[in-house]
Amino acid sequence: MAKIVVTDGMSNDAVNLLKKNGHEVTLQSFSKDELLNGCLSKFDAIIVRSATKLTKEVIESTGSKLKVIGRAGVGVDNIDLDAASNAKITVVNAPLASTQSVVELTIAHLLSSIRHLSKSDRGLRLGKWEKKAMVGTELSGKSLGLIGFGRIAQGVGMVAQAMGMEVHTYDPYLPPKVAKNQSTRLHKDVDTLFKSCTHISVHCNLTDETHHLVNYERMKLMPGKSRLGLKCGNHIVNCARGGIVDEEGLFQALEEGIISSAALDVFEQEPVDSENKLLSHPDFHGTPHIGAATIEAQSRVGLDIAKNVMDSLAGKTVKAIVNSHLMK
Ligand code: MLT
């Protein structure tokens, strides 16, 4: 029996699964000071979402009992993987569980952008009937550039193709045959992706390499019209990670009309600062990092992470270990 602490909440089904397998589950969140003062040292495993920050200092204060960190979700940017590996702690995530939910949110943002859904709603609430100003464009016949071509991007690409879009991607780690099988044009250079696409959607991790990859200079390369010459403007969506889109550059591009609409689910600072200039721009709309926030995804995330943590504790093979390459 292991002592498992869940700090950022988890579905009841998942908690029950852990208990049914004989584990002692504590549901408790901790302050930064408590985390730094070794409050995790009595547990064998911890399950977090994005709120609990497992920094080097926190991990070094846990002692030797903690064996597994479970991230109930995909992104592990709130966990210091080097520190966990040095402390011989296995880090597992739930990489598949939220794919469909993020695909659907991305498509929702794309559609909302080009049909001015948020802008129309804001106007209606102020008593405005701006029918003429809300003329949009179709996705059909336009080119969509996907930055990163993992499971979520491939799902977005399939829906976009079904809606008549031409799909392009930039992913330096992708075997070309994967793009070919998905009838997607793979670009070797990110700038050519921007030159070829009127709509860009971000689907990569945040790393030193991808920080501010979507910036003012690149947005300036976008064509603003479809292959057939229809002026549809340029559109940016990011439901992946804050910091990949340079928000200052995006604001400037919106101000200058280089970008016609931008939709972000993720921000450089979260929760987003109410002073963020994007929030007052009419051609911007956003959501508070809700890509995985569906009943279905949260249920799958909980069950997947509970299973991965239990298997890891039992020394079984787990596919979703994210720091195996760092463990000595
Ligand atoms: C994830 O990485 O799983 C998603 O961005 C959801 C989240 O962090 O809450």
Describe the structure.
By secondary structure, the protein is an alpha/beta fold. It has two domains: 3-97 and 295-313, NAD(P)-binding Rossmann-like Domain (Rossmann fold); 99-286, NAD(P)-binding Rossmann-like Domain (Rossmann fold, 3-Layer(aba) Sandwich). 33% of the residues lie in helices and 15% in strands. The chain has twelve helices and twelve strands. The chain has a seven-stranded parallel sheet. β7 (166-170), α8 and β8 (185-187) form a beta-alpha-beta unit. The longest helix has 19 residues, at 295-313. The mean pLDDT is 97. D-malate binds next to loops.
- Radius of gyration equals 22 Å
Report low-confidence residues grouped into runs of 5 or more: none
Number of domains: 2
Please identify which CATH superfamily of the largest domain we are dealing with.
NAD(P)-binding Rossmann-like Domain
The overall pLDDT, averaged over residues, is: 97
How many E strands?
12
Task: Give me the secondary-structure topology.
Elements lengths: L2 E4 L5 H9 L3 E4 L4 H5 L8 E4 L7 H5 L7 E4 L9 H6 L3 E4 L5 H16 L2 H9 L17 E5 L3 H12 L3 E5 L5 H6 L3 E3 L2 H7 L2 E4 L13 H4 L15 E4 L8 H9 L5 E4 L19 E3 L8 H19 L15
Parallel strand pairs: 1-2, 1-3, 3-4, 4-5, 6-7, 6-9, 7-8, 9-10, 10-11, 11-12
What is this structure, in a nutshell?
Helix content is about 35%, strand content about 15%.
Which short descriptors sum up this protein?
single chain, 328 residues, alpha/beta, Rossmann fold, 2 domains, 7-stranded parallel β-sheet, 5-stranded parallel β-sheet, 12 helices, 12 strands, 33% helix, elongated, binds D-malate
